[in-house]
Amino acid sequence: DYPPTDRPIAYETTVGEEKRKNIHVHEGVTEPQFVEMRNQRDQTLEMPVLILPSIQVNIRAGHPPPAEANGKTYLKIPLNVL
User: What DSSP assignment string belongs to 20-54?
Assistant: First the structure.
């Protein structure tokens, strides 16, 4: 959830609530409409700040990367890419 500054983070919801309130996938939105809306919106957004650490954890189903030889786990951030 990326909330506006005037409301708290929402971390729980129901299918019914999303059908009523979600601006992207509410009742009546077709797949082509959703794809078009997302493509247009995504072109205006910068890369999320935490995308690189998120991918490293999400790709492992929420588990951190394996520990290095020193026993410590690191999230690796490329300095000359992206």
Answer: HH-TTT-TT--HHHHHHHHHHHHTTPPPPTTHHHH
